[in-house]
Design a protein that fits this description.
The chain has 5 helices and 4 strands; from the N terminus they run βααββαααβ. By secondary structure, it is an alpha+beta fold.
Length: about 130
C-alpha cells in the first residue's frame, strides 16, 4: 500500500515485537489463510485472548509466503509470561492446530514456537 497504514496512538509509550513465519508455498492455501484471518472468519475468542494477555495491537503483513507480525504492548509487558498464558486460553491450541495446515511448522506447536522473533537492525528515531 503506497499510502501507508495509520498507526494507533495509545497516549503512553509502547514497545514493539516483530516476528516472522513462513506459509506453505501453495497459492490456494495462502488465499484461504488470509481469508481465515479476516474479521468475518477469525475466531472472536482468539482476538479476545490476545487482548487479555496485555497486547494492545497485533498486525500481520504478507509477502508471498512470508508473514511479518508486529505486536505492540505496554512497556511493562513480559513476553514469556504472556505467551505462556495465551497458550492456555480456551480454543488457542485448537486455533494453532487449525492454522498449522497452512504454516511451515511442527504439528502441535504453540504460537510462540511457530513465530520467530526478529531482531531490529536499524531505526531512524534519533
Amino acid at each position: 500500500m503506497v499510502n501507508g497504514y495509520k498507526v494507533k496512538e495509545y497516549g503512553q509509550p509502547v514497545k514493539r515485537y516483530c516476528q516472522t513465519l513462513e506459509l506453505k508455498n501453495d497459492a490456494e492455501l495462502i488465499k484461504e489463510y488470509v481469508k481465515r484471518h479476516s474479521l468475518a472468519e477469525a475466531w472472536p475468542e482468539i482476538r479476545e485472548g490476545i487482548r487479555s494477555v496485555g497486547i494492545l495491537e497485533m498486525e500481520i503483513y504478507i509477502w508471498g509466503e512470508r508473514l511479518f507480525m508486529i505486536v505492540e504492548t505496554p512497556l511493562d509487558f513480559d513476553w514469556d509470561t504472556a505467551m505462556a498464558e495465551l497458550a492456555t486460553l480456551p480454543r488457542q491450541q485448537e486455533w494453532e492446530e487449525y492454522m498449522s495446515i497452512f504454516q511451515q511448522c511442527v504439528s502441535g506447536a504453540t504460537s510462540n514456537e511457530k513465530w520467530q522473533m526478529m531482531e531490529r537492525m536499524f531505526y531512524l528515531y534519533e
